[in-house]
Amino acid sequence: MDAIITTAKTWLTDFFDAETKKEIKNLLENNTEELTERFYKNLEFGTGGMRGVMGIGTNRINKYTLGKSTQGLSNYLKKTYPDELIKVVIAYDCRHNSDTLSQVVAEVLSANGIQVYRFSELRTTPELSFAVRHLSCHAGIVLTASHNPPEYNGYKVYWGDGGQIVPPQDAEIIEEIDSLDFEQINFDAKPELIKSIDTEVDEAFFAESVKNGSFNAAGKDNFKIVFTSIHGTSITAIPEVLKRAGYAHVTIIEEQAKPDGNFPTVKSPNPEEPEALAMAIAKAEEIGADMVVGTDPDSDRLGIAVRNLDGQMELLNGNQTMVLMTKFLLDQYKKKGMKGNEFIATTIVSTPMMEEMAKAYGVEFKTALTGFKWIGKMIKDFPDSTFVGGGEESFGYMVGDFVRDKDAVTSTLLACEIAAQAKANGSSFYKDLIQCYVDFGFYREKLISITKKGMSGADEIKQMLKDFKENPVSSVQGSKLRWIEDYNTSIAKNVQTGEEVGIDLPKSNVLIYETEDGTRIAARPSGTEPKVKFYISTNARLPKAGDFKSVNSQLDSKLEGIIAELNL
């Protein structure tokens, strides 16, 4: 506790503003528990940026923690590009303080002689990624905490290729930041180096989104969409992109259309949660819509609901939408003629069905750690290969490579194209998905997230993962364990034969069990929230579409049995 108090008192110097010092004094005198939470550690600049609760303290998002990260980034950029006028583009989302914090970031960059392009109003994360290359910038920054609760904010850094920072830049930037004291932040802005941007970049982004996401689908005049931005940034892009692509029947949920960092109509602004799309689904039932689309606050994730075999709206998961969108894109490439250098990609905790599809189409399959930056890195690492599309189970997808991060704007258009064309063909999005199960194997997945907040929560998460690793299961639902993949040691071990195989990916705190019947269980801590996540995947053969309901029910029962068996 003495060390925490000592650290807190360093925030009482004249460098810090009066309001900050007043709050620190109050905490020192009246609330040592809250003081501990705010100062027991530094909020880490991770491998892509930082995210945390807003407030005063080293373990919070505020002008000083963001200022320090921006100063470190400025120093790194100047060392990396010593003889160039460095340019950085900044965007921000709907969250509380995103506007003012993005201005602080712009001021620190300008104080260091860096040219700043700052969006005049909130914009989507995919547009920020696009703007980096469109404006020939050296880096980009977006102020967002994605789908986290309202008290959070964050800061993601992109490199000149439009993708999030990856090795070696990430570690080098972190080293630069960690070498600084707060008093070394340069807050003396140079306003002449800060330029507001808006419609010129918007127009270019919209045009590219329509170009990459539109495939002249039939049936648009007879296709009804309900769209919700869930109080986030996608309201600035998706309605316009759909309109330009020819969709006239788009109903916007007005109660959720106004950007609002309180997210007043939902418990969580996360399209992975059925509750977040409840208003949109109710509207779809009321007007007889074909599809519901909802996005998270910074518009890089999308949730989709479509009509199932019983005519009811059903929310699909990220694996399901990813599979059908990838198949559709592969079919388009196949029509034009494959060149032989195409690849699709996903992450180690996403559905194995993607690999089966790649085999069927004869394209290369690449897998990455969780985090979309690793998929973006593939495009940079394999310049002679063509990225078709790819995604992750957590509702993120990327179409082509004009954006180098998950992109709910273009992916929304792509999903509508698939569904409109399917309806025109006498099928549906849902029926086409079932056909994928027939063609490539019926894979079903389930995610279990367990939240553990605060300092004690972090210890609990570590212990849960330690127990999972040190006490491996011997079987799952009667199927014997075959492989243990340990990404901390980069070794996959066949527990039945003793064979060991190296894992050619960066080390990460992920452990995966695989049984003889192909059931996979992965465990990892969240990189952005105080959660531990368990990803379960199982599969079965689906001989024909008519067997869907019975096999689906069997897989449902098996997933519930696995969850019970693991006490999750």
TrEMBL record:
UniProt cofactor(s): Mg(2+)
Q: GO molecular function: any one?
A: magnesium ion binding
Superkingdom of this entry's organism? Bacteria
The cross-references to PROSITE patterns, in alphabetical order and at most eight, read: PGM_PMM
Gene Ontology biological-process entries: carbohydrate metabolic process; purine ribonucleoside salvage
The record's listing under Gene3D superfamilies reads: Alpha-D-Glucose-1,6-Bisphosphate, subunit A, domain 3, Alpha-D-phosphohexomutase, C-terminal domain
Residue runs in coiled coils: none
Question: Which Pfam families does the protein's record reference?
Answer: PGM_PMM_I, PGM_PMM_II, PGM_PMM_III
Q: Which UniProt keywords apply?
A: Isomerase, Magnesium, Metal-binding, Phosphoprotein
Alphabetized InterPro entries for the sequence: A-D-PHexomutase_a/b/a-I (IPR005844), A-D-PHexomutase_a/b/a-I/II/III (IPR016055), A-D-PHexomutase_a/b/a-II (IPR005845), A-D-PHexomutase_a/b/a-III (IPR005846), A-D-PHexomutase_C_sf (IPR036900), A-D-PHexomutase_CS (IPR016066), Alpha-D-phosphohexomutase_SF (IPR005841)
Keyword flag Iron: no
> Member of which family?
Belongs to the phosphohexose mutase family.
This protein's name: Phosphoglucomutase
Q: Look up and give the organism this protein is from.
A: Croceitalea dokdonensis DOKDO 023
